[in-house]
Write a structure and sequence with these properties.
Layout: H1 2-7, E1 13-15, H2 24-33, E2 37-38, E3 43-44, H3 45-49, H4 53-58, E4 67-71, H5 75-87, E5 92-97, H6 102-105, H7 117-130, E6 135-140, H8 150-160, E7 164-168, H9 188-191, E8 196-199, H10 205-215, E9 219-222, H11 232-242, H12 251-269, H13 271-286, H14 292-299, H15 305-317
Parallel strand pairs: 1-2, 1-9, 3-4, 4-5, 5-6, 6-7, 7-8, 8-9
Helix pairs in contact: 2-12, 5-7, 7-8, 12-13, 12-15, 13-14
Length: about 325
């Protein structure tokens, strides 16, 4: 199975699913740098079953391993969604039980499912039985500090056939505040026999080594730290597996990556929509650079592709040798 291939090739470093970010162009750039695997944005089971074209676009992925994350609260529709994704060529289905966003939780989906253990298990059972490919799952520690049930659910999910877990080491009530508690999930190593990934606040090589040591996880999942740094996963992967430190790309190399990512986005979405989507990436890529605030202000005021290309070119030339 392809999941086994990913997990048996050293310590894996996965790109976490992020709504509005981990679209096909971004996943392609991250994979080009050498991440173990990437996961799609969460795909609404409701929309996919209705054959929503926009939703179908989210699962387009030319990488060798296609991991599609689905979200919903209806076991039947989640199972049907998994079947559709399998038919489109997905290699792995990932179930979202970790998203803390209000609009997802209000639909009893995402991390809200951790409050309804019976429904959560029913969804897992339905999805696993519906497909012939591995099913994985992403969740949090629990709803809040008084209701941390990740250990109980992890065992139940394993019993239903889940092949790997990814744990964001916060509760839903924490959202993204405070510090992710890597050590807390170490107990999973005594509870389940399937692999699990540690996620949350892993921003550097040092964070990754600490997270692995404290969590006793099989691998790492990187989310927000990859924004503007699609090469980060490769750096962490090389260090964890080969004790080798890859230098940060030069400004010239960063510029080439940005423009490749930009043009791929325009091709994928069309010029108007692609440009609107990519503004946030320009901001992330330029974070921490001299005069970045002025650059971001200008980039958000321009509408033409040629104008933007010239601005980006002039901005990055100042930093190139």
């Amino acid at each position: 199975m392809k999941l086994n291939n990913l997990l048996n090739a050293g310590t894996p470093v996965f790109l976490a699913p992020m709504a509005g970010v981990t679209d096909a162009p971004f996943r392609e750039i991250v994979m080009k740098f050498g991440a173990t695997a990437v996961v799609t944005e969460m795909v609404s089971s409701e929309a996919l079953v209705r054959n929503n074209k926009k939703t179908l676009n989210r699962i387009i992925n030319n990488n060798d391993i296609r991991i599609v994350q689905i979200v919903g609260a209806d076991p039947y529709k989640m199972a049907e969604s998994a079947k559709i994704n399998e038919a489109y060529g997905a290699d792995i289905i990932d179930i979202n039980m970790g998203c803390p966003a209000k609009k997802i939780v209000n639909n009893d989906s995402g991390s809200a499912l951790m409050r309804n253990e019976k429904l959560a298990v029913s969804i897992v059972s339905a999805v696993v039985k519906a497909v012939n490919i591995p099913v994985t799952l992403k969740m949090r520690l629990g709803w809040d500090n008084e209701h941390k049930n990740f250990l109980k659910l992890a065992k139940l999910f394993e019993n239903e056939g889940i092949r790997m877990l990814s744990i964001h080491c916060r509760t839903r009530s924490q959202m993204y505040s405070g510090k992710a508690n890597w050590k807390e999930i170490s107990e999973l190593s005594n509870v389940i026999n399937i692999p699990y990934l540690c996620n949350g606040d892993i921003k550097t090589i040092y964070d990754a080594t600490q997270a692995l040591d404290m969590s006793k996880a099989s691998g790492i999942m990187i989310g927000r730290a990859s924004l503007g740094k699609p090469w980060l996963l490769q750096q962490i992967k090389e260090y964890l597996n080969n004790n080798y430190v890859i230098t940060v790309p030069t400004e010239e190399e960063k510029y080439k990556t940005i423009m490749e990512h930009f043009y791929n986005t325009l091709t994928f979405y069309g010029e108007v929509h692609g440009l609107r989507i990519f503004r946030k990436h320009f901001c992330w890529y330029s974070s921490g650079m001299k005069d970045a605030a002025n650059f971001r202000e200008k980039i958000n005021s321009l509408e033409g592709v040629n104008e933007i290309v010239k601005l980006v070119d002039d901005f990055y030339k100042k930093f190139q040798n």
